[in-house]
């Protein structure tokens, strides 16, 4: 376990993120070429709608193009991608190849947890940077108690393609084109999986009613 720190294995963690102008059109979220209500579509993301219950769709939590035109202001859609880098995966594979299965499981588990922790940390960073009217940060609504973070007590939510309300994993390729994570060493396989393995991506919805749901 000492090698994780002494060999600099954890020094390869990296993040790429960005804020993109967006509006909704029906069940779609469209990322625009510029922050104007009548701007052309850069990328379109389609989301399914619930067929029962509240009939929710991810696009419901982004300002519609019509409302954006009325107010003269589009919405914003943050994307983020974090990675622990290739060395920790190489170290885990080295342990597995040498039949050190217990150490392999521990290192692999640490890598998974560190990746998720970095994603959560950067989600917090986005909430700090994203400001509403009156220069009030989204993070101003974060809970005081640490345990409430585990209950998703902050405003909005972080969503990943391939799960729950956004099951289309092919949309990950569009996100990759927006973020250009190759500059931090992350690529997308033909199977739409991120490499290095200990990497994760997401988009953030700031709407106060945006919480996890399934379709």
From TrEMBL:
Biological-process GO terms, alphabetical: homocysteine metabolic process; methylation; tetrahydrofolate metabolic process
Entry GO CC: cytosol
Coiled-coil region list: none
EC number: 2.1.1.13
First-tier enzyme category under EC: transferase
Keywords attached to this entry: Cobalt, Metal-binding, Methyltransferase, Transferase
Keyword Transferase attributed: yes
A single GO molecular function term of this UniProt record: metal ion binding
A Pfam family this chain is assigned to: Met_synt_B12
Protein name: 5-methyltetrahydrofolate--homocysteine methyltransferase
Organism taxonomic ancestry: Bacteria, Bacillati, Actinomycetota, Actinomycetes, Mycobacteriales
């Amino acid at each position: 376990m000492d090698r994780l720190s002494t060999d600099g294995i954890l020094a390869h963690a990296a993040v790429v993120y960005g804020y993109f102008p967006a509006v909704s059109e029906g069940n779609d979220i469209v990322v625009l070429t510029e922050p104007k209500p009548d701007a052309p579509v850069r990328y379109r993301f389609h989301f399914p709608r619930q067929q029962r219950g509240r009939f929710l769709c991810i696009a419901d939590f982004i300002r519609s193009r019509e409302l954006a035109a009325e107010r003269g202001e589009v919405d914003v859609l943050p994307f983020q991608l974090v990675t622990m880098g290739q060395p920790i995966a190489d170290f885990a594979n080295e342990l597995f190849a040498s039949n050190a299965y217990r150490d392999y499981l521990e290192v692999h588990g640490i890598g998974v947890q560190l990746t998720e922790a970095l994603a959560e940390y950067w989600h917090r960073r986005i909430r700090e940077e994203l400001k509403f009217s009156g220069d009030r940060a989204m993070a101003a609504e974060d809970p005081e108690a640490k345990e409430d973070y585990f209950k998703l007590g902050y405003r909005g939510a972080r969503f990943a393609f391939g799960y729950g309300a956004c099951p289309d994993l092919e949309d990950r390729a569009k996100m990759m084109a927006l973020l250009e994570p190759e500059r931090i060493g992350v690529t997308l396989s033909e199977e739409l999986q991120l490499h290095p393995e200990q990497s994760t991506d997401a988009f953030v919805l700031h709407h106060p009613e945006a919480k996890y749901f399934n379709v």
